[in-house]
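yo

u said u wanted the structure for the complex thing, so here. seqs first:
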Amino acid sequence: MQDMKAAEHPHPTAGTYLRVAAVLAVLTVIEVGVFYVPAFKPFLAPVLLVLSAIKFAIVVMFYMHLKMDSRFFTLLFGGPLLLASGMILGLLFLFGVMALGH
Amino acid sequence: MSHAATTHHTSMGLDSRKMAFWAFIGSECLLFGSLISTYLIYQGRSVSGPTPGEILDIPVTSVSTFDLLMSSLWMVLALAAVQRGDMKWAKIWLFGVVVGGAIFIGFQIYEFTTFVHEGLTLQTNLFGATFFVLTGTHGAHVTVGVLWMGTLWVRALQGKLGPEHAMTVEIAGLYWHFVDVVWIAIFTLVYLLHK
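structre next:
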């Protein structure tokens, strides 16, 4: 509980925000590049999902300040996010879009 | 009449408005989770075209994706400027966010119009129904964000936005960045991983 109270550290500097933007831009270029390279076809889904998850995490941690804010905010966001992710995966299995044990 | 910013702290020492807004964003995760899962479940099950592979324009959407990402940068720079009381740059960055958001909506209007002309509507097939509902809901969120940021920009122009309103700008920023991360997911799942 103490961790949740210990909150709201100073936000990153403009320099950090610019570096984060550069990383996001590079990751987006890689995403689109990978999409057009035939050699990546067999690994396209995992590669793109990982890149997308990294971009998602970077924005949430640095631009939404969850990295330096109270852990309670992480809980308020992470809980429903996990629930939503679980729901998506559950429905994909239920409707046969994804399958186990083939 | 000036409205002095009042802080509302919870017993945990956290700003209650920020806490409520994070709870709202949590609920939005479930909304977009349901729309994304519906899209994925019906993906590749349309009995007639146009299909995603025939109609999606990746280069154009990549540009609009980049535009939305950069508007997130301008949003945090606006917040940083408000926090240090540099209202000149706060106005510039907030204007950038509004323009960036408007450009994204412009791209979406162009995309939707093109698709309708090419024969894809809500009623055409499962792809059309789920695609327009998902991206349209996201577009509606961006539109709300543009209006919200526009309001902040006007308040800044009127001299009614200062460092004492930093939390107001931070909460608006949380909304804007959430809209951005949802698009990060949509861009990958709908556009780059289409069947």
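Residues 126-157 of chain B form the longest helix (32 residues). Residues 72-195 of chain B form a domain with the Four Helix Bundle (Hemerythrin (Met), subunit A) fold (CATH 1.20.120.80).
cya
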